[in-house]
Specification:
CATH superfamily of one domain: Immunoglobulins
Structural class: alpha+beta
GO molecular function: 4 iron, 4 sulfur cluster binding; metal ion binding
CATH topology of one domain: Immunoglobulin-like
Strand content: 15-25%
Radius of gyration: 33 Å
Largest sheet: 5 strands, antiparallel
InterPro entries: 4Fe4S_Fe-S-bd, 4Fe4S_Fe_S_CS, Cyt_c_oxidase_cbb3_FixG, Electron_Trans/Redox, FixG_C, Helical_ferredxn, Ig-like_fold
Distance between the termini: 101 Å
Protein name: Cytochrome c oxidase accessory protein CcoG
Helix content: 40-55%
Keywords: 4Fe-4S, Electron transport, Iron, Iron-sulfur, Membrane, Metal-binding, Transmembrane, Transmembrane helix, Transport
């Protein structure tokens, strides 16, 4: 008996799918606007052409073959790791800042899972009807009508999933070419694997798992609760107003009059359950803060709709914090100022780094064996390895000069042609007469892109003569 009871305790419960009701309101309008903007940008960006000062092509292209990222006029190479790290840190700071100040508002409005699940639910609602109709369809036996509606829903889900996966691959190669090659069967195998895997992942996550991703799989909601405090703004149910002394109850008989309800000690909440019915994760916010709440604000819209019908003030359910409710006034939150300062600093760092990126990169290294060579006429030669990376989308020519030395001091070609996105390594030598070499310890080389004298890079190199300087 004890073993049976133990096994029964670990028996998985049946997962009842959540069928949220539709609702209109300001937060639903904001979510819809963000959905339209996100889809418009995501699906159109690979097909647009950017005509900038330094490059022409897709506004965003992650070119794995050339190992570079093209973002409008900005070209990022692996050498520019610092800006990639800065962008990564900036994103992390923004997510932590959102979690600490506004709870899971990122989940409710900006998360990819939320955006795609909203689109999948829109398809489901368009084909099967509103929530009540979908619930009736789930309960009725399988027939031609049910098979047609459910089948069409899943077919449209698969089409959207495929379009999502295909568009994702277009960010890694020239979009028109890859699109044509994909349907011609000549695209790289990696593209087909990515499309299949991402199509399946999108279909499962947004069509089948839905809220279970937010409730179970997503780690963001788990650590967010550890960052929340009394100043965190999140969805809040005003219990003192909603339930007063005798709790909430339906507006029956004399309790339809709101003033009469208040006189008898009943709250403004009429226990309609609309706030629960519209929640995409099935949370009853009236029970207090819960980890499953993604702060989408739909329950706020639902409650405001009911309050408008009852001619009561809005805000029974609203975005607020425990500190604001307790003090009934807004206080300066040191944490908000701290996060804002870090965010501003990271934004300034990323912006400055992006603005100061040069169209080419160069480095020079002294040849170790031998450090110096004495020529037959007594001159001293030092050899160096010059590495030039062209970080533009066009072939460029570079000129090397030595400051403070004669034009004959540089031994080797002074003009190099480097194709777009390529790195060339050249050998150069600095040759000085014995008297000059004796008193030279550092040499300043300047690499200039031909036709763009402002884009110059100074290279400080050491010079070894093997001679003692004269006093």
């Amino acid at each position: 008996m004890q073993v049976a009871s133990t096994l029964a305790a670990f028996k998985p419960r049946k997962v009842i799918p959540i069928v949220p009701y539709s609702v209109k309101g300001r937060y639903r309008s904001i979510k819809t606007a963000l959905l339209v903007i996100a889809y418009s940008v995501y699906f159109s960006l690979p097909w647009l052409t950017w005509h900038g000062n330094t490059r022409t092509g897709q506004p965003l292209l992650i070119d794995l073959h050339a190992l570079r990222v093209n973002f409008f006029d900005l070209v990022i190479f692996p050498h520019d790791l610092i800006i990639l790290v800065g962008i990564l840190i900036l994103g992390v700071v923004m997510m932590f800042m959102a979690a600490a100040l506004y709870g899971r508002v990122f989940c409710g409005f900006f998360c990819i899972q939320t955006l795609w699940t909203d689109a999948f639910r829109w398809i489901e609602r368009a084909v099967q009807g509103e929530a009540q109709a979908r619930l009736r369809l789930q309960k009725q036996p399988w027939n031609v009508n049910k098979i047609a509606r459910v089948g069409l829903t899943h077919l449209l889900w698969l089409i959207l999933s495929f379009a999502t996966a295909l568009t994702f691959t277009l960010y890694f190669l020239d979009a028109p070419i890859l699109f044509a090659r994909t349907f011609a069967g000549t695209a790289p195998m990696a593209a087909y694997v990515t499309i299949i895997a991402l199509t399946a992942a999108t279909y499962i996550a947004a069509g089948l798992a839905r809220e279970q991703i937010c409730r179970v799989a997503c780690p963001y909601g788990k650590f967010q609760t550890a960052m929340q405090d009394a100043h965190t703004v999140t969805v809040f149910y005003d219990r003192s107003r909603g339930e007063r002394q005798r709790g909430r109850t339906a507006p029956k008989a004399e309790l339809k009059d709101m003033s009469q309800r208040a006189a008898q000690g009943y709250g403004d909440c009429v226990d309609c359950g609309y706030c629960v019915n519209v929640c995409p994760t099935g949370v009853d916010i009236r029970k207090g803060f819960q980890i499953d709440c993604i702060a989408c604000g739909l329950c706020v819209d639902a409650c405001d709709t009911i309050m408008d019908r009852l001619q009561l003030p809005r805000g029974l359910i609203r975005f607020s914090s425990d500190a604001a409710v307790a003090d009934n006034r807004r206080r300066i939150n040191p944490k908000a100022w701290g996060y804002s300062a870090v965010l501003a600093g990271m934004l300034a760092f990323v912006f400055y780094t992006a603005r100061t990126l040069t169209p080419f990169d160069a480095s020079v290294q002294h040849q170790a064996q031998p450090l110096m060579i004495r020529l037959a006429n007594g001159d001293i030669k030092n050899r160096y390895s010059l590495r030039i990376t062209n970080k533009t989308s066009q072939t460029a020519e570079y000129v090397l000069r030595a400051e403070g030395l004669s034009e004959h001091a540089l031994d080797g070609r002074g003009l190099w042609t480097v194709p777009a996105g390529k790195t060339y390594t050249q050998l150069v030598s600095v040759v000085l007469p014995e008297e000059a070499a004796r008193n030279t310890r550092q040499v300043k080389l300047v690499l200039i892109e031909r036709g763009h004298p402002r884009d110059a890079k100074a290279l400080e190199i050491s010079y070894y003569s093997g001679l003692s300087a004269k006093l």
